Amino acid sequence: MGARVALAAKAEPRICAGIFALAFVGILIGGAFAGLVAEGAGDFGNAILAFDVYLLRVARFTLWQAALSTLLSVLPGLLVARALSRHPRFFGRTLLLQLFAVPLALPAIVAALGVLALYGRAGYFADLLSAASGSTWPGIYGLSGILVAHVFFNMPLCARLFLEALQTVPADQWRLASQLGMDARATFRLIEWPALRQALPGVAGLVFMLCITSFTIVLTLGGGPAASTLEVAIYQALRFDFDPARAVALTLLQVALTAIVVTGLARLGATMTGDAGLPVAPRRFLSPGRAETALNASLILLALAFVAGPMAATVAAGLQADLVRLAGEAPVRQAALTSIVLAFLSALLAAALSLALAMARRALELGRHGRRKSLLETLTDTGAGFVLVVPPIVVGAGWFMLLRHFGDVFAVAPIMVVTVNAVMAMPFAIRAVQPAYDASSERHERLCAQLGISGWTRLRLVDWPALRRPLGTAFAFAMALSLGDLGVIALFGSDQVQTLPYLLLARMGSYRTADAAGLALLLGAVCLALMLAAGRLGREKAE
């Protein structure tokens, strides 16, 4: 088997590129686990003792907040999706769906600041909430803040995914329901619920996965040890307590939990990248009554207010900051330059790795000639998604413990940020690249073989025209994800290496809320622009 793979790689440059990409990912993830194993083996007794009441309490809170967040996101998302499905034509519907996509583009720390600007101790709703509670509003830190932020992110995603499921219902069923005079209850039970029930496990599993690996939201809104998840506890164990034994125990438990969730998602057939491409709304043959229309309109307006509120608060608070002064500060300019350079390199690496895996998978598929899939083909096909089993903070923790034995861990911060963010963005990027490359190969594979065109020449002359826009989509998406990420830089950041999210967190920690709001506005605007560019490129590619 090994000899055949080596021979195939030598004869086919695309397979060689895929092997290199898999080796790169394997070294990154394997190095993290090597650091964990070395640390645990060197201090095995303390690592075992670290499995104490505190660790179990943190694990219990991690699961509890993820379960509550999933319930509070999925149920409203299902109701809003049904309301939107029942009314496929109304003014502003397209704009509303585009607004529901914005939370996916916002860095988590920006959304957290938006939630605080609305519901914090000095937020816009503080006086109203104080009057309603009869006492001074203490703010929204702790479990309540985590839940609000998670629902802000995940409820729109659930609504889009459920709406996509409802739009797969054949038009003939709607026509028959209209002819039979079905009311709203019968339509839901016989037509809508079967489609929603099929999508429900995958959507709920995806949201649970996103919440169980949430780091930035819990770090900024948790408010203390009582509301700490496993990932935040890993960060605190390394950066503040410097307790490697506890960090190893926490990391192993985190990996076990995410592995269980991802395995369950795969068995449910769910996608872990959360893409929801919405087609044009199909024609409906049913006319909702006045009562149902009023109820659906109320649901849609409530969802709109909940999602738009933190965004508007972020913009309002950011505009009140002294943006000119902030732009003139040397630390801000340096952090912005560092963020852009690191995000650019990370996106470039993510796009290159995704293209290499897509090319290798296609080459292996063509060379299979009806035989069963090899392990290498399986890895190039589905291996990219399984990097999500190991969250960024876990990879960073493993390398942090490994590199501390060889020198200054903070000196390698740029390398760690670029590589980890690139690998974590790869499952998203490959979804844009792989279909386009497969389509190009379907058209040109035989001609390239007849003319002997391969390698760099083929990529430049044959594949590049078809891949230019998909690669642009992948690049913009990966750059936005990297630009707003706080997971790795939270561990490796220092006064010498700071990104905008790291600087924003530092300003929040020093109670410079106005500066933090201004930085959040700038960071959110850049990430949103990149996501819009990715979406535009994706639409143009589809057309």
Descriptive report:
It is globular, with a radius of gyration of 24 Å. The protein is an all-alpha fold. It is built from 23 helices and no strands. Mean pLDDT is 82; it is low at 1-10 and 276-283.
Features:
0% strand, 543 residues, disordered N terminus, mainly alpha, single chain
- Estimated helix fraction: over 70%
**Shape assignment:** globular
Straight-line distance between termini = 42 Å
**Helix and strand element order:** HHHHHHHHHHHHHHHHHHHHHHH
Question: Over the alpha carbons, how many angstroms does the gyration radius reach?
Answer: 24 Å
Low-confidence regions: 1-10, 276-283
Overall pLDDT score: 82
Helix segment count? 23
Q: How many strand segments? A: 0
Topology of this structure?
Blueprint: H1 2-11, H2 13-42, H3 44-49, H4 53-86, H5 93-105, H6 108-119, H7 126-133, H8 143-166, H9 171-180, H10 184-212, H11 216-221, H12 230-239, H13 244-268, H14 290-320, H15 323-328, H16 330-366, H17 375-382, H18 392-403, H19 413-451, H20 455-483, H21 487-492, H22 500-509, H23 513-542
Helix pairs in contact: 1-2, 2-13, 2-16, 2-18, 4-8, 4-10, 4-14, 5-8, 6-8, 6-14, 6-23, 8-10, 10-13, 12-13, 12-18, 13-18, 14-23, 16-17, 16-19, 16-20, 18-19, 19-20, 20-23, 22-23
